[in-house]
C-alpha cells in the first residue's frame, strides 16, 4: 500500500520514490467540484439557480441530489468493462441509461451519480469555453501548485499506472479520470482547504453535508455523508473526515483531511486488489494517530 501525507503544510511521502502515476478515480470529482466552485467565486455560475434547460442546480449536481441515474446500474456496462471493450460514446451511454428521465425530483433524495459529474464537466467546458483539461489546469492545478497531473485519455496512459489497467479504457469514466502522484492528490486536498483558492463562504458551502445514515459494515464511517464533491463525516474518536474514496479495476485510492477541533492532518493511501474500507481504515488510522499523538 502506498501512503502519502501533508503535515504542518509539508508533503511527506511514506512509500516509494520516485512516485508512480496512479489513477485518482473518484477523487477526480473533488477536483471537478473545486473547478466549478471557482466559477461560482468569479460570478460565472450560481450554486442555486436551476441550470439552463434543467430542473436541478449546480449544488444538487455536486451533492448527488439532482435526481440523475448512474451508468453503474447497467449490467451491460459491467459486462463491457470486464470484457475490456472500448468505452461507449457518452451519447450512447446516456441513451442506454435513459438519462433524461430523472429518478426523483431534484433536492428530494440522494443517489450517487457519475452522470451528474459528467454534467458538471460539460458545464465547466461551456462556461469557460475551454476543454475540461485546460479549465481544470488553469483554475485548480496551477493555482494550487499541483504538478505532473493530467487526464487519462487512452489505454496507454494507464499501462504503467498499476497492474490490471493495461486493457482498461479510461473513456469509461465519463466525467474524466485524473492520473498523477499520490502526494499531489493529498497536497491538492490540503491546499484546497487553505482559503487560497476559494473564499471562506464557498469552502463552508463545499462542506455542507447530506448525511446518508449510520455506520457502514466494513468501513470506518460513523455517519457517512456527501458534501460538494466530498465524502464527509465523523469516524471514531470525534475526527471528521473530508475527501474522497475512488475505486476502479483492481485498485482503490482514498484521499482525506481529518480534523479534531482546529487541528487537521491530510493523508492518502492507494492499494491494489483490496476493499474500499481497508484503504479508508489505513488513512483513518494514520490521521487519528497524528491528531491524538
Q: What labels describe this entry?
A:
Beta-lactamase; 33% helix; alpha+beta; 293 residues; 8-stranded antiparallel β-sheet; 9 helices; single chain; 18% strand; 3-stranded antiparallel β-sheet
Q: How would you summarize what this structure contains?
A:
This protein has 293 residues and is an alpha+beta fold. The protein has nine helices and eleven strands. An eight-stranded antiparallel sheet has the order 2-1-11-10-9-8-7-6, with helices on both faces. Strands 3-5-4 form a three-stranded antiparallel sheet, with helices on one face.
Can you describe this structure?
This protein is α+β, with helices and mostly antiparallel strands and 293 residues long. It has one domain (2-292): 3-Layer(aba) Sandwich (Beta-lactamase). It is 33% helix and 18% strand. The chain has 9 helices and 11 strands. It has an 8-stranded antiparallel beta sheet with strand order 2-1-11-10-9-8-7-6, with helices on both faces. β8 and β9 (240-248) form a beta hairpin. The longest helix has 17 residues, at 276-292.
